[in-house]
Amino acid sequence: MCGIVGYVGARPAVPVLVEGLHRLEYRGYDSAGVAVPRRGRIAVTKVAGRVRDLRDRLDLPGAATTGIGHTRWATHGEPNDRNAHPHLDASGRVAVVHNGIIENAEQLRARLSADGVALASDTDTEALAHLIAASLGDGPLEDAVRTALRHVEGTYGLVVLDRIRPDELVVARNGSPIVLGVGEGEMFVASDVAALVHHTQRVVFLDDGEVATVKAGEYRTSTLDATTTTRTPTTVDLESGSYGLDGHPDFMRKEMAEQPEAVRRALRGRLDTRFATAHLGGLDLDPVALRSVRRVKFLGCGSAYYAGQIGAGLVESLARVPADAEPASEFRYRNPVVDPDTLYVAVSQSGETLDTLAAVQELRRKGGRVMGAVNVVGSAIARECGSGVFLHAGPEISVASTKAVTTMGVSFAMLALLLGRVRDLSAAAGARVVAGLQALPERIEAALALDDEIAGIASRYASARHMFFLGRVSGWPVAREGAQKLKEVSYVHAEAYQAAELKHGPIALIDKDMPSVVIVPDDDIVVKNVSTMEQIRARGGPVIAVTTVDLPAGVADEVVRVPRGEAVLDPLVLGIPLQLLAYHTAAALGRDIDKPRNLAKSVTVE
Ligand code: F6R
């Protein structure tokens, strides 16, 4: 949430900053701004709106070779020019960009006001600028930053520019990522490698509680109590191209298309055909420990929670171990009973979601056994869990998650297989699941090939103001994720319901203007789903069936048929047409697909 970029080197800084902000815009797009030293002052340009609006205001390229930039998702204060970052202290000496939340901002702001400081914005970040400026002495800038941060409670990734030292930046991290990019005679700073991999792949991820001074040819890291740390750069093994559109119109489309390959990567080296099981090297649980797991609980937010619910279904059916999923945001606040025999699985694409991270911290504090299912290597949740599975989905830029959700499901199928095979899942049944997983990329390809057909359906129903998404048992979390996808990218109201619950009340809403998308996996209750569709159609409601089975003729107005395969894996395939339905509905309605209103990738606030 929010994106940070910084540059120190020999090139004009502003074009580097603007380009980096473009790449980070998926993290927040309420406002954007840059600050550079200019003739002994700091020149700040900031604007409510998109990075393109900022670029229109800038005089490019400009002479400055140092600078900081920010793209914002508003938390404290509405998204206007005043509240956009960077923020200056009252004398205009230091400029700050910041991700995270300063929890004691109100007290700090009140104290500053009482001291006569005129606050220029409604933000928590501005307080940091004043505190740092007030802490400046004869020593290095990083000393002032350390002193100021002693008064601060909350999370931050921040970058500070001082007009007296225009050739350096100071950065600090606590809970919000900061990465340094090491170039030839130039250094980059960002909240996300996406902003810098096309400049350099040599990076240093700061730890929480670290501060760094960054100059063109060097950087120095230390802790908040000024103990020097040694950080050698690592090489990110991602091509900068994987952060580009590669000819696709938007990232959601690109990432949906990447799903077969993402699934192949997630499976690579993890299926054991000899013993019909899975190898999950990062799990750190031997067979005895795996057998001691008496319950599995998946924790995540939004789509990651729905993927966890799919995972719980897989664990129950393959391993016969009780399993469920809960929103991490609820779990962390309800003083959960932490059971030592439960395996907790923290599910997160970004590895940054604050609610999920807090749930993990609560679990660890209470001695719970927790593993991560995370896409971003080195992220806070991955580090906090210490063990788990990486999703290997590749960078996900689109705010609406697609390939990460699919690889979550794949990882949970492997976990369920592993738990099953140390219990009563037979070798023959295990072998069927292994074969089913191996065949999954082709099934997903076949589902993606339904694109034109689904675009046609989307155009016929795009004018609907509401839609139901209905499913039973393993189809239920698929329906929930389908409804979520439609809501977030098209703004069409969609409600997911357990199909059998419809007749207990919501069926009153059914009429010709209320289409229902019904998920019909290849399971023992197809006939029940058929009767749900008949009940809807009898009341004049249009039905779109999304299924892997042959349905009786005339039972639905539209049938999206995905190829049959290992039935237990159907929830992983049936989600694909729903992604396409959301995408094409959004496209038909002219929505900004990669940047849905009010949203941002990575929710690092409460
Ligand atoms: C929906 C979506 C969100 C995320 C949720 C958790 O498309 O992307 O619902 O799934 O914010 O994010 P992560 O997985 O990064 O923890």
Give the DSSP E fraction (strand runs of 2 or more residues): 15-25%
Bound molecules: fructose -6-phosphate
Largest sheet: 8 strands, antiparallel
Q: Estimate the global geometry from the Cα principal axes.
A: globular
Count of β-strands: 27
| Cα-based radius of gyration, to the nearest Å | 25 Å
Order of strands across the widest beta sheet?
3-2-4-1-10-9-11-15
List keywords for this structure.
eight-stranded antiparallel beta sheet, 27 strands, alpha/beta, seven-stranded antiparallel beta sheet, binds fructose -6-phosphate, globular, 606 residues, 18 helices
Describe this structure in a few short sentences:
The chain is α/β, with parallel strands linked by helices and about 600 residues long.
Give structural notes.
The chain has 606 residues and is of the alpha/beta class. The strands form 5 sheets. An 8-stranded antiparallel sheet has the order 3-2-4-1-10-9-11-15, with helices on one face. A hairpin with a 2-residue loop joins strand 12 and strand 13 (218-223). The mean pLDDT is 94. Fructose -6-phosphate binds next to helix 9 and helix 16. Residues 301-304, 348-350, 353, 356, 400-401, 484, 488, 602-603 line the site of fructose -6-phosphate (F6R).
List the helices and strands and how they pair.
Blueprint lengths: L2 E6 L4 H12 L6 E8 L2 E8 L2 H7 L8 E7 L14 E2 L5 E6 L5 H10 L10 H11 L5 H9 L6 E7 L5 E7 L4 E4 L4 E4 L11 E4 L4 E6 L2 E6 L4 E2 L4 E2 L15 H7 L1 H9 L3 E2 L4 E2 L8 H5 L3 E6 L2 H17 L3 E5 H4 L10 E7 L5 H12 L3 E6 L5 H6 L2 E3 L12 H19 L5 H22 L2 H11 L4 E6 L3 H16 L2 E6 L17 E5 L5 H13 L4 E5 L10 E4 L8 H19 L18
Parallel strand pairs: 18-19, 18-20, 20-21, 21-22, 23-24, 23-25, 25-26, 26-27
Antiparallel strand pairs: 1-4, 1-10, 2-3, 2-4, 5-6, 6-7, 7-8, 8-12, 9-10, 9-11, 11-15, 12-13, 13-14, 16-17
The structure holds fructose -6-phosphate (F6R).
